[in-house]
Each structure stands twice: as structure tokens, then as C-alpha cells.
Write a structure and sequence with these properties.
The complex is a heterodimer of chains A (about 60) and B (about 375). Chain A is of the alpha+beta class and about 60 residues long. Chain A has a single domain, classed as Alpha-Beta Plaits, CATH 3.30.70. Helix content of chain A is about 25%, strand content about 20%. Chain A contains two helices and four strands; from the N terminus they run E-H-E-E-H-E. In chain A, the strands form two sheets. In chain A, strands 1-4 form a two-stranded antiparallel sheet. In chain A, strand 2 and strand 3 form a beta hairpin. With about 375 residues, chain B is of the alpha/beta class. Chain B has three domains: about 180 residues, FAD/NAD(P)-binding domain (3-Layer(bba) Sandwich), CATH 3.50.50.60; about 120 residues, 3-Layer(bba) Sandwich (FAD/NAD(P)-binding domain), CATH 3.50.50.60; about 60 residues, FAD/NAD-linked reductase, C-terminal dimerisation domain (Enolase-like, domain 1, 2-Layer Sandwich). Chain B is about 25% helix and about 30% strand. Chain B contains eight helices and 27 strands. In chain B, helix 1 packs parallel to helix 7. Classes of the chains: A alpha+beta (about 60), B alpha/beta (about 375). The interface between A and B is medium-sized, with 18 and 22 residues.
């Protein structure tokens, strides 16, 4: 899978980090998402989908 | 179950529809929305859309391809007017009847208004059309008066001030957002607004709106007039339950549900509208925040399909005002004890913890996202062993 983020949409809620901590992190100064892994292993797909569902800013996309 | 009707086509209704499909529901899904717009995101209305940073198209919650992939029937721009629980039927204002096996209620809230007819220039802010009208009016740099110093009023005041308008925030409360976060945080928010040049009129009752065709100002106690060409009325909201009167559902505060978001057999509620029993807090909650709409829409859909999972989220809200990013998890009930943990490495950033009888119930971050996430874990542990 390939994960992409739109930084300028991100509102810094941090739900993605809670859902998929090996894929996402947040910048300390403003909470904007950091993509740790653009191509996570397949067993992370459920976590990534959960992050997409929870993201209030719709800033995450995944191509499988 | 073959036919699911979802009344309310915003964040909660959309999450419910998507969850039904994700869980394998293959029957018909009908979404009813009173606004003509496809589902869109509301938090940017008072922020990015209002400031002009974003155009309306960016608010779409899903693109057309994703909406098409749901395979749902959309009834937009039409209001539901009644529910017959026994006959399993929702009736729309055009007299169409929608028969259902399962129903999800997600009609949200509408803004509370001042009584009487209002002159032009007096606005409420709930939907995209409201926001676009206000944004257009702000272009003329009117003097702005905001009535109500809760989350929406305070946030709008910051945005209008950022656009260069003269702004006065008039609140009945002594401090902005004090009902949400208590006096200590309220004082800090007030301070940030004063620094940015927002005039604050706390503990002030507005006696009437002045102006015949167009608003000219607010009449305040003591014969004082606050001049304004644009007024935002942000005095809270009321659940959209009028259409459910006579349905037999318990409408004491929104739609009253059990711990599973169920209002009656096969009938669930989600989002701003739904009051439900939160097992973690051991009390009834009704939450008017964006994250809850999505989470509860999904939970209601799963339970409609038979999951029987109690809905016990950690409530989350955020607000952006000037350079301050406020985020909170949990609750800040009146009488809660606030403890502020400053970030030694970064002046001006902190996490505030709220405790009731020694138990951690809420945490707020002031430009402190990472520290707040750590506090969230403590909160989860305090609230519910399995969260």
C-alpha cells in the first residue's frame, strides 16, 4: 500500500498516531502529521484505514 | 434487514453509511439531508473557509467517486417531517414515505436564535450557506459584534479579527469558553484575545438588536449602544428533534439512547443529536463535536447490524484561535479541579488536567499536542481499563 498525507489539511488532532503509531507521528510545534512510513507492510492496512476513518480533516489517503 | 434509512447527511450520517458497507451490509441505504450539499466538513466554516484560506470545494467530506461507491440513495435538499415507529416509516416534506427495517437518526442541531424578526446583518453560523454569507459580508470590513463567548463565538471573533475587522465579543459569562474549560483557561483565552485587539464585554446582557432594515448595533444595559454592521449570534444550539415530536421516542435532551446508541428497537441515533449513556463516565452525554459525529455514526451502524458494543469514546475537541491550538480530551465538568503542567522546555505550552474527586476526567493542551497525547493515555487508563 501507499499512504499519502495532505499537510495543509491536517488539523493536528493526532487520531492517526493513536490508530497507527508506526505509520504516523506529529510535529511537536504544531501537531501537523508526519508520515513515518509511506509504504507500510500489508498487516498495517486495518490500522491505516482506521486512521483515515478517524481523521477529522480527511488529510490521509491510501492506495492499495 | 434489507432497508436502512439514515436521516441526516453530514459527518455522522456519512460515517454510518460507510460503516454499514464496510461491515458487509448489502441492502439499500437511503440518506436524507435537509441541506442541498453533499456531506461537508463543518469545523473549517469558522476557520479556513471564513478566513478565505479555503474555497468551499475543499470542505467536501468525500469526492464524488467515493460517494458513488457507497451505492446509496441520496435525498438531499429535503427535510424529514415525521417518524412512525410502529409502521417503520419516515415521511419527507414532499410527502414521500421511506420504509425502513433499520433507522439511524443524525439530524444534528440548529443554532439557537434570538426571538423576533432580525434586521439584515444578523447571522447564525451552522451551515455552509451561513458561512458563505458571513464571509461575503466580512469583505466590507464591518464592525463585528459576536453575541456568545462559547467555542464558536470565540473562534469566530479570532477569525474576524484576523481579517482586520474591529471585533467585540459580548458574553453573558464572565470569561470566554469558561463553561467548556473553567475560569483559569478562560482567563488565558481572554488575555490572548485582548492582546490581538478583540474588545471583550463579559457578563453582559444584550437588550436588543438596533436597526430597521440593516443592523446598526446592540443595545446594552445602561443605555449604551455598541455599533456593529455585522452581528453573529452564537448562543448555543438546540437538537433538531422537532420532526420527531409524536414519534414516542424520548426527546428529553436530543434523542435519548442507551449505551449502544439505541433509541428504540432498530432505531439508533448518532452525532450532535444523540444523548447516550457513557459507561466509562457513568453518566449521560450529548456531544456537539466533529470527532464524536464520525465515531458515533460508525458505532450506531455497527450496533444496528448487531455488534452490541457500548459506545464509550474519549471525547475530543479542538479550536484554533490566533496562534493558539487548543485541544482537549475528556470532560471539564463544573467544579473540576484544574492542574496546569507547564512544558519546561517550551514556554507558553502546557497541558491542563481536570480532576473530579481525585479522578482524572479531562486534559487540555495549549499548543502542546504531543504532551496532550501522553495525557490522553493517562485519561484512558483512568476512565476505562480497556480503552
Amino acid at each position: 500500500m501507499r499512504v499519502t498525507i495532505e499537510e495543509d489539511k491536517c488539523c493536528g488532532a493526532g487520531q492517526c498516531v493513536l490508530a497507527a503509531p508506526t505509520v504516523f507521528d506529529q510535529r511537536e510545534e504544531d501537531g501537523i502529521v508526519i508520515l513515518l512510513d509511506e509504504t507500510p507492510p500489508d498487516d498495517k492496512l486495518a490500522e491505516v484505514r482506521q486512521a483515515i476513518r478517524l481523521c477529522p480533516a480527511l488529510a490521509i489517503k491510501v492506495e492499495v | 434487514m434489507r432497508r436502512v434509512v439514515i436521516v441526516g447527511a453530514s459527518a455522522a450520517g456519512l460515517a454510518a453509511a460507510e460503516t454499514l458497507r464496510a461491515e458487509g451490509f448489502g441492502g439499500t441505504i437511503t440518506l436524507v439531508g435537509e441541506e442541498r450539499h453533499a456531506p461537508y466538513d463543518r469545523p473549517p466554516l469558522s476557520k479556513q473557509l471564513m478566513s478565505g484560506a479555503w474555497e468551499a470545494g475543499r470542505l467536501a467530506l468525500r469526492d464524488q467517486a467515493a460517494l458513488d461507491a457507497l451505492g446509496a440513495e441520496w435525498r438531499l435538499g429535503v427535510r424529514a417531517v415525521s417518524l412512525d415507529v410502529a409502521a417503520r416509516r419516515v415521511t419527507l416534506e414532499n410527502n414521500d414515505g421511506l420504509d425502513f427495517d433499520g433507522l439511524i437518526l443524525a439530524t444534528g442541531v440548529r443554532p439557537r436564535r434570538l426571538p423576533g424578526r432580525m434586521p439584515a446583518g444578523v447571522h447564525v453560523l451552522r451551515g455552509l450557506d451561513d458561512a458563505l454569507a458571513i464571509r461575503d459580508a466580512l469583505a466590507a470590513k464591518p464592525r463585528v459584534a459576536v453575541i456568545g463567548s462559547g467555542v464558536l463565538g470565540t473562534e469566530f471573533a479570532a477569525t474576524a479579527r484576523g481579517l482586520g475587522c474591529e471585533v467585540t465579543l459580548v458574553g453573558q459569562a464572565a470569561l470566554p469558553m469558561a463553561r467548556q474549560f473553567g475560569a483559569r483557561i478562560g482567563e488565558m483565552i481572554a488575555q490572548r484575545h485582548r492582546e490581538a485587539g478583540v474588545a471583550l464585554l463579559p457578563s453582559t446582557q444584550v437588550l436588543r438588536i438596533e436597526g430597521a432594515d440593516h443592523v446598526t448595533g446592540l443595545r446594552l444595559p445602561g443605555g449604551r449602544i455598541l455599533p456593529a454592521e455585522l452581528v453573529l449570534v452564537a448562543i448555543g444550539s438546540v437538537p433538531t428533534t422537532g420532526w420527531l415530536a409524536g414519534s414516542g421516542l424520548d426527546l428529553a435532551d436530543g434523542v435519548v439512547c442507551d449505551a449502544f446508541c439505541q433509541a428504540a428497537p432498530g432505531i439508533y441515533a448518532a452525532g450532535d443529536l444523540a444523548s447516550w449513556w457513557h459507561e466509562g463516565y457513568g453518566r449521560r452525554l450529548r456531544i456537539e463535536h466533529r470527532m464524536n459525529a464520525s465515531e458515533q455514526g460508525a458505532a450506531a451502524a455497527r450496533n444496528l447490524l448487531g455488534a452490541r458494543e457500548a459506545f464509550r469514546p474519549i471525547p475530543f475537541l479542538w479550536s484554533d484561535q490566533f496562534d493558539v491550538k487548543l485541544q482537549s480530551y475528556g470532560l471539564f465538568p463544573p467544579g473540576g479541579e484544574i492542574e496546569i503542567e507547564p512544558d519546561a522546555a517550551a514556554p507558553g505550552r502546557f497541558v491542563a488536567l481536570c480532576r473530579v474527586e481525585g479522578r482524572l476526567v479531562g486534559a487540555l493542551g495549549w499548543n502542546a499536542v504531543r504532551a496532550l497525547r501522553q495525557a490522553r493515555q493517562r485519561l484512558a487508563g483512568a476512565l476505562m481499563a480497556d480503552a
